[in-house]
Amino acid sequence: MNAVDSRGTIRRTICKNCGKEFEYDLKANNNRERQYCCRSCASVDRWAKQKYENRTKCNSTTEEKQNRPLTADTAYYVRLWHAKGDSPEEIARTLNRSMEQVMALLKG
């Protein structure tokens, strides 16, 4: 919803983040359309985009994260939880490890 006054300099639009209707001077904004009513709405949206990009970047390397080097604590917890009756699948999910690593620790 973009509305322009008769002079063509004042625009009325809706904030992309909060949905509030606001007006701005097109000439004062170097003839660029504003998408946000204030700096805080713009920074919230920018922060959300960065968080989403980081999350997708982390999820794309899930296999690498699961096959990271084993530690002594990992071996201890795998054996302890298996002795208490947890399934290898549940242990792998809890520790964010691959099933192959968990099974190798239980066999070895």
In short:
The chain has helices at 39-59, 62-66, 72-83, 88-95, 99-107; strands at residues 3-4, 10-14, 21-25. The chain has 108 residues and is mainly alpha-helical. The chain has a three-stranded antiparallel sheet, with no helix packed on it.
Key terms for this structure?
108 residues; mainly alpha; three-stranded antiparallel sheet; 5 helices; 3 strands; 51% helix
Task: Describe the 3D structure.
- The protein is mostly helical.
- Helices cover 51% and strands 11% of the residues.
- The chain is built from 5 helices and 3 strands.
- It has helices at 39-59, 62-66, 72-83, 88-95, 99-107; strands at 3-4, 10-14, 21-25.
- It has a 3-stranded antiparallel β-sheet with strand order 1-2-3, with no helix packed on it.
- The longest helix is centred in the middle third of the chain and has 21 residues, at 39-59.
- The chain is rod-shaped.
- 6% of the residues are buried.
- The model has no long low-confidence stretch (mean pLDDT 80).
SS summary, helix count? 5
Strand order of the largest sheet: 1-2-3
Mean pLDDT: 80
The helix/strand class is mainly alpha
What is the beta-strand fraction? Answer: 5-15%
Q: What's the helix and strand layout?
A:
Elements: E1 3-4, E2 10-14, E3 21-25, H1 39-59, H2 62-66, H3 72-83, H4 88-95, H5 99-107
Antiparallel strand pairs: 1-2, 2-3
